Inverse folding.
């Protein structure tokens, strides 16, 4: 079981989000008041391609362990700065399969849809940050470490300190891919 370290949102499109005391998740939409909230995709480059595409990126989660790793590499990055809505600790988000359910706090339930593909905007925070969020596995495959994306199955309020419980989908499991 993991926990929520921080919650963040921003009503306009900008990489970093403001930390908050709590956020409200809305079923099928995302984070109330966040620029990415909606049934259809809100990421600007995806809207240009097809504004009717379902929004599989309603909520962005990053594991705080990534910030620990980045700090050891000389970067100073904290919750919300890389655009995530929920910063977690104690959950290996990147290892979860598509369809993993995250029950957070008293009511909210998220379903993981895929990986966040790190973008060049990270370079605006720190030169070299984008490369630091990418790695290679033992077979040479690209590993994206900039968090995961989810949709809201059940709404509710989320606060720092809330517990996170996982439920894996039925097998066979599919690895998370960029969405």
């Amino acid at each position: 079981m993991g926990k929520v370290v921080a919650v963040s949102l921003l009503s306009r499109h900008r990489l970093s989000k403001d930390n908050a005391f709590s956020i409200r998740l809305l079923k099928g939409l995302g984070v109330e008041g966040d620029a990415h909230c909606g049934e259809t995709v809100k990421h600007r480059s995806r809207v240009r391609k097809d504004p009717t595409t379902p929004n599989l990126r309603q909520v962005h989660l990053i594991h705080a362990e990534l910030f620990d790793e980045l700090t050891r590499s000389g970067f100073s990055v904290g919750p919300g700065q890389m655009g995530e809505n929920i910063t977690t600790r104690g959950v290996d988000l990147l290892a979860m399969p598509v369809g993993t359910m995250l029950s957070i706090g008293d009511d909210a339930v998220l379903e993981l849809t895929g990986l966040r593909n790190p973008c060049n905007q990270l370079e605006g925070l720190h030169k070299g940050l984008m490369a630091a969020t990418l790695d290679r596995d033992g077979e040479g495959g690209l590993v994206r470490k900039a968090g995961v994306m989810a949709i809201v199955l059940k709404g509710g309020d989320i606060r720092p300190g809330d517990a996170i419980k996982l439920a894996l989908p039925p097998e066979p499991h599919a690895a998370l891919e960029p969405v």
Summary: The mean pLDDT is 96. The chain has one domain: 2-167. Residues 2-167 form a domain with the M1 Pyruvate Kinase; Domain 3 fold (CATH 2.40.33.20).
